[in-house]
Design a protein that fits this description.
Elements (H helix, E strand, L loop, with lengths): L4 H10 L2 H26 L28 H7 L4
Length: 81
């Protein structure tokens, strides 16, 4: 386990080729993820300006009476039966 960032840097400097590239890339990824995480925690989510109304799409969509009529055929097509 590394006690300081200097220890980590020293270890990375001893790596060569692909291993060094992979280590640096991974550390960059972790640094970016940490910055994104810090940004998320700083700002509260925006408040909703409008409440959702139940039934607001009523009459805009048509659901046929025989909606469930073909369930067995659909299940057979997907191999569920």
């Amino acid at each position: 386990m590394y006690t300081t960032s200097a220890d980590l840097v020293q270890t990375i400097e001893t790596l060569t080729g692909e291993y060094r590239f992979a280590a640096v890339t991974y550390i960059d990824y972790l640094a970016q993820a940490q910055k994104s995480r810090a940004k998320i925690g700083q700002e509260p989510p925006p408040a909703r300006t409008k409440k959702r109304q139940f039934g607001s799409a009523k009459g805009k969509f048509i659901c046929p009476q025989d909606f469930d009529e073909d369930n067995e055929e659909i299940a057979r097509l997907f191999g569920a039966v």
